[in-house]
């Protein structure tokens, strides 16, 4: 853990690297697109900065044809927050599904902005636990750590996740009451599982998310890919990104490492 934090702080130690993270926070960008933001810096230097950010796990790279697309991975920053800030401040910002509360706080008077577009979230987190254990925690044991619920206030609910093709990630709070968080359409246990699911989004939205588990350094590197398209409200990408950071970088990581 100390070594990982040292790498993160090294990655944050240069102003250009911090500017790159600011740009990626707005949207993923190719290496060429990032290069255009720094006309006085050579492309080689930008690539070197990106390599340091990737070593610090602050940038996740996905290759799309001949292009290299860079995504912000804020989970290491979440770990820094948990260590030095989280114990002193109670967070109220984490939620995949805070749309209803936002409307209620505004008295239902403000209209949320919507856009017919899409978003894509890529995150990675290393866990000091065997891949089989992480896969079981993500699926069969999800009730033990998954914190978010859509059940009406005052009703207890229970989560189940059947990791087979056609299986469902479901929340139930009554004999015939509940919600489906995801439908499984691909499984290669314990390496990968893919689902379709709205994850709190409502309306004309197509959403899918994938977990990939890679054995690394005696533990497991969990890669999350989440994409959504359709009528997207402007805060959904940010809410889901923060929600995943909390779910994977805090709740799941603590569960599998301290179980």
Automatic annotation (TrEMBL):
A Pfam family hit: AHSA1
Protein name (Swiss-Prot/TrEMBL): SRPBCC domain-containing protein
Organism superkingdom: Bacteria
Stored Gene3D superfamilies: 3.30.530.20, Winged helix-like DNA-binding domain superfamily/Winged helix DNA-binding domain
Domain HTH arsR-type, residue spans: 7-86
Annotated keywords: DNA-binding, Transcription, Transcription regulation
Similarity remark: Belongs to the AHA1 family.
Biological source species: Virgibacillus byunsanensis
């Amino acid at each position: 853990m100390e070594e990982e934090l040292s790498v993160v702080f090294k990655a944050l130690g240069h102003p250009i690297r911090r500017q790159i993270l600011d740009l990626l926070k707005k949207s993923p960008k190719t290496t060429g697109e990032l290069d255009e933001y720094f006309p006085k810096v050579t492309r080689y230097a930008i690539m070197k900065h990106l390599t340091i950010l990737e070593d610090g796990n602050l940038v996740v790279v996905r290759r799309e044809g001949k292009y290299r697309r860079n995504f912000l991975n804020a989970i290491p920053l979440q770990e820094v927050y948990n260590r030095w800030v989280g114990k002193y401040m109670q967070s109220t910002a984490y939620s995949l599904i805070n749309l209803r509360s936002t409307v209620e706080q505004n008295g239902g008077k403000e209209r949320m902005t919507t856009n017919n577009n899409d978003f894509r979230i890529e995150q990675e987190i290393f866990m000091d636990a065997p891949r089989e254990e992480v896969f079981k925690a993500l699926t069969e044991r999800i009730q033990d750590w998954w914190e978010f619920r859509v059940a009406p206030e005052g009703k207890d609910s229970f989560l189940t996740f059947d990791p087979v093709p056609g299986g469902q990630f479901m929340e139930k709070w009554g004999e015939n009451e509940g919600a489906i968080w995801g439908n499984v359409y691909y499984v290669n246990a314990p390496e990968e599982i893919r689902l379709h699911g709205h994850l709190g989004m409502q309306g004309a939205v197509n959403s899918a998310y994938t977990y990939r588990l890679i054995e690394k350094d005696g533990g497991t590197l969990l890669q999350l890919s989440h994409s959504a398209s359709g009528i997207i409200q402007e805060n959904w990408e940010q809410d889901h990104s923060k929600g995943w950071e909390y779910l994977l970088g805090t709740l799941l990581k603590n569960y599998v490492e301290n179980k």
